[in-house]
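Table S7 (text form). Paired inputs.
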Amino acid sequence: GTDCNVALELNTEEGEHLENVEIDILDPQGRKITKTRTGNRGRCTFLLNNVGTQEEYKAVFQYKGYDYEVKLPEVEEEGIALQVRQDTLLRIELQRSEGLTDFPEGLALQVMAQGVPQTLQHIDFGDKRKTNVTIPLNELRTGVNQITVFDGKGQIYADRLCFVNRHDYDSAKIDIHGIEPQYEPFAPVTLNLKLQDIQDTATSVSLAVRDRAMEEQTYDNGTMLTEMMLASEIKGFVENPGYYFEADDSMHRRDLDLLLMVQGWRRYEWKEMAGIEAF
């Protein structure tokens, strides 16, 4: 069996995110093997250990007094499980399924960002089922990075998106002083602006003034950073994209990774892509 990290998003038919819902994961015999709880926007992950190819798993939970049961996707007969962690390095753990023992065409791991290859490394499991790859973050671009494991025929064994933030697109942080609680109509406004970090190179800024009472809340609060570096790289609408960059802490990084695991999932017809079968 293979250890698999699974991500999900739980919503109602109307699209309401179901947060703080406990979900039990059952094996084919109906035994609870693990549990998880939905968090931000109804997303969560759980780890399945020693997954067998013929096994079928189910997720069960309660909502508003009713019991629900959802069959999980079928387990692939063979493949490579891929898990990612980040600190100063991008740490990638690969685990092959038991029946996958020979790669006559060779095996490689490639990281791409915005359609541009960042690194390509040969993978050799030897006689082991697990191997690890580490990549310095300074070798990768800020934005969504696509990790792909494939062989010389073009068969894709694993694919995963992750977000790398080297902070080279961070805006200068500015302290603003002199704002009064209330102003008379047409009264002059004097503000004092000061860079928090004297090393910042900002020499000019843009200023917009609006009436807070007329402000409308919207789910689409994207900026050029969120649109170019995030939303354009994954499927579907990214709700409240500014949230993922309002702080660079463990909670926001985890929620961003969950977004990429859910909306960044994809499946390939690799034989068509490699020209083995007609498109």
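Next pair, protein 2 of 2.
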Amino acid sequence: MQLHRIDLNLLVVFEAIYTHGSITRASQVLFITQPAVSNALARLRRHCGDELFYRSGRHMQPTARAQAMIGPVRQALGMIRQSLQDGMEFVPETASRTFRLSMADIVEAIVLPRCLPEVTRQAPDCRVHSYPVERSNILQQMDAGQLDLAIDVAQPGREPLLLHQPLLQDRYVCVVRPGHPLLEQELDMDGYLALQHLHISSRRQGSGHIDLHLEQLGVQRQVSVRARHYLLVQPLISKTELAATLPERLARQLGLPYLPLPFPSPALTLNLYWSQRAGQDPAVMWLKELILQSVE
């Protein structure tokens, strides 16, 4: 294969399809039409003499040839991106850029109100997009230039190619409605277990880490309501007899009264993650330092 005859943009399209498993999603990420993506894939198939992807249900699955190609392609594109960034200085006051962060909604609620005011003050023309990315896909999207930073719970033995720095640690507390009788006394284990609890989880079923910890202690709390979003905590708790176990910072932010837990529990420990590629990007490193300073 003669390299000078290949449009290198075809490799960008290849990487996008591989990362997202979809021609539609690849077109959205690359800001080009679906026919343009399909045409680029057809051209690359002819160059490689391989289908590269085949449809399985709603997803495009890579062939063995595509799986062998993706590593070198990502490395080559990363080197090209880096060579274009070397020597570039990030000037927040005049920069216009979109930063993409991965975090769950509870982390958004804790982190974004603390850092966004400073981002908008220092870099008024920059934008921040926050959305959750599957943990198994974070490094892949960072290497593809589609994700800048991730904030997630600390996990020993996580992806070794991800760099990280501790961001914050917070204790869990029990929140109740204003005027709740328990606020006038010390909360003990019997009182905690007698409460009807609100549990927030993105999963349809399964125990939370507080429930797993209580199981180790040989007890079980009563979860009466299970919901997906922390946005519901304040209106549900303030108007019912429900209780919820939340990080203390979030409880203060929601303006809800709270009590210390009557048992020792693991703290919420968050790390800030980035890739080696992002570590060479002055703009991402600027945002990383700003976030670290904002949540201190």
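The first strand starts at residue 53 and ends at 56.
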